[in-house]
Amino acid sequence: MTPKLSQPSQANGPTIVAAIPCLNTESFIGDVVSRARKYVDQVIVINDGSHDGTAKAAEAVGALVINHDRNRGYGEAVKACFEMAKANSVDILVTLDGDGQHNPDEIPKVVALILNDGADIVIGSRFLGNQTNMPRYRRLGIKLITFLFNFGSKVKVHDAQSGFRAYSKQALNTISATEAGMSISVETLIKARAYGLEIREVATSCQYHPSSSSMNPVTHGLMVILSVVRLRLKRLADGAVRRK
Question: Which of 21, 30, 95, 143 is the most exposed place for a label (fewest CB within 10 A)?
């Protein structure tokens, strides 16, 4: 059942919720939630089948936790974030990682482009500034994924794989995501671009921790690259059918 959120702190202001997909992030999640709570009306943690104390650590600092009975994948966790936001008529949904890579204190500047400039999706880009200790092999993989997203399109971004984002209500109600894995990050942008939603970026920092990821980066990268190619080809095929 979709959880019911508390009322916004300002009765006439927009409802802003931070949603954090998590898998075995007990060491980081308490700090991430505590800092994020300063900038949003509520923090939701989607505990995607963790085997450690992630859920208890998040609840202890005030997060509302949605528990998956097993690990369903990053995409399924993000879809749970979207469903929660739509069911509760959230005005702005912020997503960020629970492993300490993203800085919750940067939430205001990610949200600002929606509040002040009317953007639909704002990406916290790791490549607009120089504030990341990202390993070289990860940087190359993300650059390739972003190139595949940008190729042949007028709407381009610098970081198609960042999970630190803000979504407007318009974006949440327009995009229907289907991917179960990490490729959902690119899928949402491909669909947003197809619907003419405004995608913006802002420079954010990113701190990589050796213990923060349980996925093999090479396997992960190859899976996302193949998914991006598949999604782009499908979008081209759909467009060709509509033109007939």
Answer: 143
Q: Measuring CA to CA, which residue among 125, 208, 213 is closest to residue 166?
A: 125
CA-CA distance, 131 to 141, in Å (whole number)?
Answer: 18
Across the chain, how many H-helices and E-strands are there?
8, 7
3-class SS at 93? strand
Of the ranges 8-22, 58-72, 197-211, which one carries the lowest mean pLDDT score? 8-22
Mean pLDDT of 90-109: 97
The C-alpha atoms of residue 135 and residue 160 are separated, in whole angstroms, by: 17
Tell me what the mean pLDDT of segment 70-80 comes to.
95
pTM summary value: 0.89
Question: Number of C-alpha atoms within 13 angstroms, CB side, residue 225?
Answer: 14
For 122, the enclosing helix (H) or strand (E) is strand 121-125
Identify the CATH number of the domain defined by range 16-243.
3.90.550.10
Positive/negative CA dihedral, 92, 98, 99, 103? positive
* Cα separation, 202 vs 59, whole angstroms: 30
Stretch 66-90: mean pLDDT: 95
Average pLDDT over residues 126-147: 85
**CA–CA distance from 184 to each of 90, 130, 150, 189, 201 (Å)?**
20, 25, 16, 9, 18
- Tokens 């912020």 belong to which residue? 94
**Beta-strand relationship, 64-68 and 42-48:** parallel
The 10s digit of each residue's pLDDT in 213-243 is 555 566 667 778 888 888 888 777 666 445 4
What are the sequence ranges of the domains in the chain?
16-243
